[in-house]
């Protein structure tokens, strides 16, 4: 009898994912795409426009799961390409360091971050992009905001699950919180 073992599975079947989500935290990456000037100062923040599962429209960061046996750098690149397109030209350092760790809970109010599906731990990064960004997958649009616009109550109210808080932390991290 031959036993075959898959050592690098990429995705869980939907029913397996639901089972795991109910029992343990899942690792994610969040990326705040930014445009920078020639001195490295953030001039614009890119926010995706998405339709949530309840049918509401929301502004969002680039976000997604890290696969089994996938480096964080590769997960960031995969999700940036998936959401922003293949010629976004993200600049990820050789040794990426998150600006914060966001812990999403299925119970609202435990932290500022909420995901009703699961307990998720997300490593959050500010990622400069230099290329042409065209939203793909489930993103309807990508809009570039100045840091002041992105931190405004008008934009913040359009962000779900605490991503507005995460965006403000990113702006503070790069010295651009108004």
UniProtKB/TrEMBL annotation:
Keywords: Hydrolase. InterPro entries: DUF4916 (IPR032582), NUDIX_hydrolase-like_dom_sf (IPR015797). Pfam families: DUF4916 (PF16262). The keyword Hydrolase applies. GO terms for molecular function: hydrolase activity. The keyword Hydrolase applies. This is NUDIX hydrolase family protein.
């Amino acid at each position: 009898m031959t036993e075959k073992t898959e050592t690098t599975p990429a995705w869980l079947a939907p029913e397996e994912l639901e089972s795991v989500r109910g029992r343990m935290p899942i690792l994610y990456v969040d990326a705040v795409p930014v445009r920078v000037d020639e001195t490295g100062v953030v001039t614009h923040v890119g926010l995706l426009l998405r339709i949530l599962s309840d049918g509401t429209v929301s502004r969002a960061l680039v976000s997604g799961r890290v696969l089994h046996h996938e480096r964080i750098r590769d997960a960031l690149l995969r999700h940036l390409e998936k959401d922003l397109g293949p010629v976004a030209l993200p600049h990820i350092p050789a040794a990426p360091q998150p600006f914060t760790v966001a812990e999403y809970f299925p119970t609202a109010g435990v932290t500022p971050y909420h995901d009703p599906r699961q307990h998720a731990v997300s490593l959050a990064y500010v990622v400069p992009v230099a290329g042409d960004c065209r939203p793909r997958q489930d993103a309807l649009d990508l809009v570039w905001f100045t840091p002041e616009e992105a931190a405004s109550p008008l934009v913040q109210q359009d962000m779900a699950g605490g991503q507005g808080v995460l965006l403000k932390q990113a702006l503070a991290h790069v010295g651009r919180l108004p």
